[in-house]
Amino acid sequence: MSGQKRQGLKELRHVPAMRVLNSHLNAAEEQSLARLPIGAQARVIAVNGSGAIARRLMEMGVVPGAPIRVIKTAPLGDPIEIRVRGYHLALRRTEAQTISVVTSNE
Length: 106
Fold this sequence. Notes:
Blueprint: H1 3-13, E1 30-32, E2 41-47, H2 52-59, E3 67-73, E4 80-84, E5 87-91, H3 93-96, E6 99-103
Antiparallel strand pairs: 1-6, 2-3, 2-6, 3-4, 4-5
C-alpha cells in the first residue's frame, strides 16, 4: 500500500461522521439508506457511527457525495444490494441505517 493511501486511511480513523454541505438541501429530504425503495438513486450525505464497519464502508467508496442506487433486496428484506462507484455491494439493514442519503433525480 502506498504511503499516501496509508496516510489517508489513518486520517479516516480520526474523522467523525463527515457531512457534505449543500445549501439547496433541507433536513426533510435526508433519510437512511435502509429506507430507500428499490431503484431509488441518492447521494451519500454522511456515514454515521464509529468503529470498523463505518471505516470499512468509507474505504469501499461509501463517502459523502458518492452516488448510490438501490438494486434489490433479499426476499426477507435483509440484506440489500446497492450500486456505488460502479460496483455492487450487499449491506445488512443495520449497516445501511448508518448511511444518511438524500434522494436525487439523476
